[in-house]
Design goal:
KR_dom; oxidoreductase activity; SDR_fam; about 50% helix; about 15% strand
């Protein structure tokens, strides 16, 4: 098990959802927090809450903006010290009917869900390599392990899983750990948050109630945060929030093995 007291964590999408759950779990363990999000009011609320527990700095950040990402990391490290824990958590849950896909929808989804993760890795990995220590945690999804019909979302989440697994193998000898979160249903507001983008990738109105009910029936953000931090401390490369994906993974694995000559 690992102890991160007095460490510094940098969390994208940290003002809400799983990111906030992770921040709360880390705060209780004495970790200083650099919270970033695009939602300034939520960022202020979460910052005020967490300042009662640990040292916190908040920064409005769009993870698509590479220059801003580097500037915010520099500012956070000047205020809090070297970042040892990176959580690339910001993301959206886009949806498009297959006959309504467009380059604009692909560009938006890839930019936030995949390039946003790449920007976090590329900004902080060189610093971690120099220090020969660190832990990178990327948020994917159960949809990054078993494909569903939501092509936009599934594509980016499979990519995040592959990036994380490959990066883990590449940096192991440098004293850096990498984990990927593949949650099942978690009680977040990601559907509403994605819809607020007004970018043509909101879930269809007739599907929203059922999907939101499924999310609300799942793990709470605080339970998810504790699961993530406990799994990290145990050195687990894959982090889940329940057994929801198990039968689907078993079916996919069996099908893959059966496909081999």
């Amino acid at each position: 098990m690992q102890n991160w007291t007095d460490s510094v964590a940098f969390i994208t999408g940290g003002a809400r959802g799983i990111g906030l759950g992770i921040a709360r779990a880390l705060a209780k363990r004495g970790v200083s927090l650099a919270l970033t999000d695009v939602d300034a009011p939520a960022l202020q609320r979460s910052g005020e809450e967490l300042k009662q527990v640990t040292e916190v700095r908040t920064y409005r950040l769009d993870v698509r903006d590479r220059a801003a990402f580097a500037e915010v990391v520099d500012e956070a490290e000047r205020a809090l010290g070297p970042v040892g824990l990176l959580f690339n958590n910001a993301g959206i849950a886009p949806y498009s009917a297959i006959d309504e896909l467009s380059y604009e929808k692909w560009d938006l989804t890839l930019a936030i869900n995949l390039t946003g993760v790449v920007n976090g890795v590329q900004t902080l990995l060189p610093r971690m390599l120099e220090r020969r220590t660190g832990h990178i945690v990327n948020t994917a999804s159960g949809a990054g392990l078993v494909a569903g019909p939501n092509v936009l979302y599934t594509t980016t989440k499979f990519a995040v899983v592959g990036l994380s697994e490959s990066l883990s193998a590449a940096v192991a000898e440098h004293g850096i750990n990498v984990s990927v979160i593949c949650p099942g249903p978690v009680a977040t507001d990601i559907i509403a948050n994605t819809g607020s983008l007004d970018a043509g990738v909101a879930l269809r109105d007739d599907l929203v109630p059922a999907v939101e009910a499924l999310l609300k029936s799942g793990t709470s953000i605080d339970e998810a945060g504790e699961m993530v931090v406990t799994a990290m401390a145990a050195g687990k490369p894959w982090i889940s929030t329940g057994y929801d994906m198990r039968p689907h993974l078993e079916q996919r694995t069996a099908a893959l093995l059966n496909s081999l000559a």
